[in-house]
Amino acid sequence: MSDSVESDLVKIGNVLHPVADIDAAVRFYTNTFGLATKFVDGDRYAALDAGSTTLALTGPAEDVTGGVPAASFKVPDVTSALTALVQGGGSVVREPERGPHEVRAVARDPWGNTVVIYGPR
Questions:
Q1: How far apart are CA 80 and CA 38, in angstroms?
Q2: How many CA atoms lie within 13 A of 77 on its CB side?
Q3: b vs e for 53-84, b when ≥16 Cβ sit within 10 Å of the residue's Cβ?
């Protein structure tokens, strides 16, 4: 595992779902599935408690995946994780950028699935 990120430091931090209306999406997921709201950041982002993971609802201003749902991998070093991803046959869609709470990048695995890689600033 020398060319990959240490797996014991990586976890799926959330599953990202882009939505057009944060308030409506929060109401839908709380009323339909009984998910508890962790926090809401205006019309940009909402985090809902989905058990062992977070359902991350992103409004248009925070939609980094172009409307595609994606697993978001929390890693200790975004650059190292992207290097391992590319070496493994994946590709970078959006280079690392500083978000309001973390550094994040968007990539695709070798089969074309979108993933978000994020970590500390």
A1: 30
A2: 7
A3: ebbbbbbeebbbbeeeebebbbbebbeebbeb
Opening angle at CA 72, ends 70 and 74, nearest 5: 170
Encode the chain (121 residues) as per-residue pLDDT tens digits.
445 555 568 899 999 999 999 999 999 999 999 999 999 999 999 999 999 999 999 999 999 999 999 999 999 999 999 999 999 999 999 999 998 889 999 999 999 999 999 999 8
Is there a contact between 85 and 94 (Cβ–Cβ < 8 Å)? no
Residue 45 in tokens: 């982002």
